[in-house]
Structures are given as structure tokens and as C-alpha cells.
């Protein structure tokens, strides 16, 4: 049995987020602080990622003042509480084929999450892509949620947001077990 550990190369990896509302959507990026993936005999078996919630960038709002206000709001207690919780984590618990089950922790609140991912290795490099759909209300992000507020009309923000993840990781250790 061959165990391999791969560490995420931050500069070559990205997370693109999309949040939708009745009148459209906003999108941007958020940085991976660090992460690792574990493969057993070439198959993903585990891993853990730390996301830097202070690194949220909004790509679709061009005006600098509006962009700064929006970024400040996403960092506030209405959303990520980035000052109190500068990190979010995803820990992989199990993998069956392309389906991954894990625990996602945001604002100190942990919930199970499942998603599909494509994983490829080429020598000592690993690439992975996946899309996570997250219900923000599970993590006490209730701002303009139809589940908690009435008569929001066109100011309603949908509960689910997307994280489109593209990772590159480099092998850092290999162990052959008999």
C-alpha cells in the first residue's frame, strides 16, 4: 500500500465564490491559507483545508467605494465574522468514487457537506476541481434570507452560495506500507 501526502500550492490554486440574489449575483475569490490531500494507492482518502476568510475579494463591483463597503459587509457578523473567525476549515471524512463527504466549519459552526470532485495526478503534482453548494444560514449568515425575514421583495439573497474550487498540490511525502 502506498500513501502519499500532497500540499496545496496556494499561488496555483483558487476558490471562486458566487452568491445569488433575486436581482442577480455577485462573485469573487477567497484564498486557501493551507491544505493537504492524502492518497492511498492513488485514491483520495483524506485531507484538510484552511480558508482565509479575511481574503474575500469581490470581482464584479467596479466602484472602489462600493466594493470596499461590500467587502466590509461580507467580513461583518452578518456574514463571515472575519475578525472573530479568520479561518474556515474543510476536513475530508470519506471518499467514494468522485464523491467526497466532509465537515465544513465556518464561524466556529461545523456541518457535514458532500460534493463531487475530479482529481488527477501527474508525477508529483495533483490537480483537483469541485463545486461546493453551501447553505449560508446553517452558519448563522441570515442577512436578507427568506427563511428568517418576510417581505424582502427584490432585496432577498438566496441561502445557497457556490464555491468553485481549483487546486494544485505537490507531493511532499510518500510511504510504502507492507
UniProtKB/TrEMBL annotation:
InterPro entries: Lipid/polyisoprenoid-bd_YceI, TTHA0802/YceI-like_sf. Pfam families: YceI. Residues 5-170 form the Lipid/polyisoprenoid-binding YceI-like domain. It comes from the Bacteria. PANTHER family: PROTEIN YCEI (PTHR34406). This is YceI family protein. The lineage of its organism: Bacteria, Pseudomonadati, Bacteroidota, Sphingobacteriia, Sphingobacteriales.
Amino acid at each position: 500500500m502506498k500513501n502519499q501526502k500532497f500540499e496545496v500550492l496556494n499561488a496555483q490554486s483558487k476558490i471562486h465564490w458566487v452568491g445569488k440574489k433575486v436581482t442577480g449575483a455577485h462573485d469573487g475569490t477567497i484564498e486557501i491559507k493551507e491544505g493537504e490531500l492524502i492518497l492511498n494507492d492513488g485514491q483520495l482518502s483524506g485531507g484538510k483545508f484552511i480558508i482565509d476568510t479575511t481574503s474575500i475579494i469581490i470581482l464584479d463591483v467596479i466602484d472602489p467605494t462600493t466594493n470596499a463597503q461590500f467587502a466590509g459587509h461580507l467580513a461583518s457578523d452578518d456574514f463571515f465574522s472575519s475578525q472573530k473567525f479568520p479561518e474556515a476549515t474543510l476536513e475530508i471524512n470519506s471518499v467514494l468514487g468522485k464523491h467526497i463527504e466532509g465537515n465544513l466549519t465556518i464561524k466556529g459552526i461545523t456541518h457535514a457537506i458532500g460534493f463531487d470532485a475530479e482529481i488527477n495526478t501527474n508525477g508529483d503534482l495533483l490537480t483537483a476541481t469541485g463545486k461546493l453548494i453551501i447553505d449560508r444560514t446553517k452558519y448563522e449568515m441570515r442577512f436578507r434570507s427568506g427563511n428568517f425575514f418576510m417581505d424582502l421583495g427584490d432585496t432577498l439573497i438566496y441561502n445557497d452560495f457556490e464555491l468553485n474550487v481549483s487546486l494544485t498540490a505537490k507531493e511532499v511525502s510518500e510511504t510504502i506500507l507492507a
